Amino acid sequence: MQSLKEGIDKIKKEIEGQAVKNAEQLEQFRIEFLGTKGKLKSLMGEMRNVAKEQKKEAGLLLNEIKQYTEGKFNELQEQFQSKEEGVSESGIDNTLPPLPNETGARHPLSIVQDKMISIFERIGFSVAEGPEIEDDWHNFSALNLPEHHPARDMQDTFYINKTPDWVLRTHTSSVQIRTMEKGTMPIRQVFPGRVYRNETISARAHCFFHQLEGLYIDENVSFADLKQTLYYFVQQMFGKDVKVRFRPSYFPFTEPSAEMDVSCFICDSKGCNVCKHTGWVEILGCGMVHPNVLKNTGIDPEKYSGFAWGMGVDRMTMLMYGINDIRLLSENDIRFLKQFK
Ligand code: DAH
Question: What CATH number should be reported for the domain whose range is 108-337?
Answer without folding.
Answer: 3.30.930.10
